Amino acid sequence: MTSVASSPEGISGAAKVRILVVDDEEFLRSIVRERLEIAGYSVDEASNGNEALAILSNGHGPYDILLTDIRMPGMDGITLLGEWVKKSPKTAGIVMSANAELDTALSALKMGACDYITKPFNFDVLLITIENSLRKKDLERQVEDYRSNLERKVKEQTDVINSMYVRSIDAMIKALEAKDYYTRGHSQRVTVYSMAIGTELGIKEQELEDLRRASVLHDLGKIGVREAVLNKPGKLTDEEFAEIVRHPETAVRILEPIPFFRPLLPSILHHHERYDGRGYPAKLSGDKIPLASRIMAVADTFDAMTSTRAYRNALPVADAIAEVRRCSGSQFDPDIVPAFLACQAKIVIPGDVSLPDGFEEAIPRRFPQKPV
Ligand SMILES: [Fe+2]
Asked: How many Å lie between the centroid of ligand 1 and the Cα of residue 368?
């Protein structure tokens, strides 16, 4: 069974290199151990695969080198390697095989062993094999460190670039709200309503986060609509209406070059589709409309109805709710309207979101809000 050797300082510097020798021949183990200890390694022993794994499980590891025979009673060396790699992937495996077992030794290499040595072996060759295996593992570690460092740096830079994008888009939304007095706060309120509906529907994590971002950005394309059209008090001409209708596509054109926003584009593009297929820009119907767009359609329309616009006064909340209910199955997804009705009474608006006229009493301000 195992015993922890008290060896001199290892040859790899301050840290003592630890080797587990696994062989059913006690005499061979003791010879190998003696020579390795003379060379400065710390050596433990096991007589088969099961015993080696037990040593690892009992907390005697980690080992730098697993030096194992192939043919042993109980668990053989190949099975041991397969199990060992799962538990301790940083160990360099070396198999000791007889000449006749060369094919098996090659199988061991395929299973993750660093090298093999044929019995009987010269101890100098064994020492060189061990050193080479340690170097190989060290190189693997360096490559892995470099890769994970690179990934971290790329992620950091991506986060910086994304936050710059978000800030510039936020500035565009503020510019839009500055020129479109009547929709000031609209994007934020639509976000609050969409999130309430999405949560009611059981949407979670990334999908809910994408819904939030899409809701904030859904009307960004109105930046391309003339101010005189956005704030026109009277009826729009066909040409002016066509200008308004283009805003989802304009938003997509603005956001498309930025990879960070790409997952949001379908839901932004289709937020004016109707469930019955009579919306724009693509006249999609039913489930062909992205779920986030169907949610935003309800939130957007409810906010539009309850806000005073250039061309009409706000509807009372109860009337707006009745209108949403009436349009279930035509303008709106009949599965989403009940979710809106269920959560509507619970919706509260964050303190920093401007409210439509006369809304202050109807919807209290308590809802926490995250930045885009
Ligand atoms: Fe819109």
From this structure: 24
pLDDT along the chain (372 residues), means of 10: 38 69 93 93 93 90 91 88 90 83 77 84 91 91 92 89 80 79 78 94 92 92 88 87 94 88 95 97 97 97 84 81 95 97 78 52 38 32
Token pair 């690892």: residue: 56
18 closest CA partner among 144, 143, 137, 141: 137
Answer whether 211's CB lies under 8 Å from 194's CB: yes
DSSP classification of residue 265: H
In the chain, what are the domains? Answer: 18-147 (3.40.50.2300), 180-344 (1.10.3210.10)
The per-residue pLDDT for 354 is 60
Question: What is the model's pLDDT at position 122?
Answer: 87
Distance 249 CA to ligand 1 centre (A): 10
Distance of alpha carbon 285 from alpha carbon 278, whole angstroms: 8
CA–centroid distance, 301 to ligand 1, in Å, is 9
Locus of tokens 């002016």: 240
Ligand 1 centroid to Cα of residue 215, in Å, is 10
Dig out the tokens for 218 from the structure: 């859904």
pLDDT at res. 182: 65
User: Residues lining ligand 1 (ion), CB within 5 A?
Assistant: 219
Angle between the 26-38 and 123-179 helix axes, to the nearest 10 degrees? 70
Distance 210 CA to ligand 1 centre (A): 17
Place of tokens 């109707």: 274
Distance 81 CA to ligand 1 centre (A): 61
3-state DSSP helix/strand/coil % of the chain, to nearest 5: 55, 10, 35
**Ligand 1 centroid to residue 372 C-alpha, Å:** 18
pLDDT value, residue 15: 63
Residue 5 has a pLDDT of 36
Which pTM was predicted?
Answer: 0.59
CB 81 within 8 A of CB 59: no
pLDDT of residue 183: 65
- Interval between CA 1 and ligand 1 midpoint (Å): 75
